[in-house]
Design goal:
With 96 residues, the chain is mainly alpha-helical. It has one domain. Helix content is 92%, strand content 0%. α1 crosses α2. The longest helix is centred in the middle third of the chain and has 66 residues. It is rod-shaped. The N and C termini lie far apart (103 Å).
Length: 96
């Protein structure tokens, strides 16, 4: 009977060691994946900022192109100029 319990205990210990090894491997893999995820998120943020900057530059180029006589963006430029004039008028009104 004692021998049987020892065998069971040995068997359980063996299984426990296997599970602990698998757990350790999975923990290491999880840490690696977490680091990779953080790097991807940082890259994503950088790309979002770059996209925003490029969109802003594109808008500036469209406006400059319209001011140089391009018919393609004249309407947009006129609307922006009108909006700016309204803002200036509001500022003048507040100063008065």
């Amino acid at each position: 009977m004692n021998e049987r319990f020892e065998q069971l205990i040995d068997s359980l210990e063996g299984r426990l060691k296997v599970l602990l090894n698998k757990y350790t491997v999975l923990e290491e893999k999880n840490q690696t994946l977490q680091l990779a995820l953080e790097q991807r998120e940082a890259d994503n943020e950088g790309l979002k900022q770059k996209l925003t900057e490029l969109k802003h530059q594109n808008d500036l180029l469209k406006n400059a192109n319209a001011l140089l006589g391009s018919d393609e963006y004249k309407r947009e430029t006129k609307l922006k100029i009108n909006a700016l004039v309204k803002e200036i008028d509001q500022c003048i009104a507040q100063l008065s």
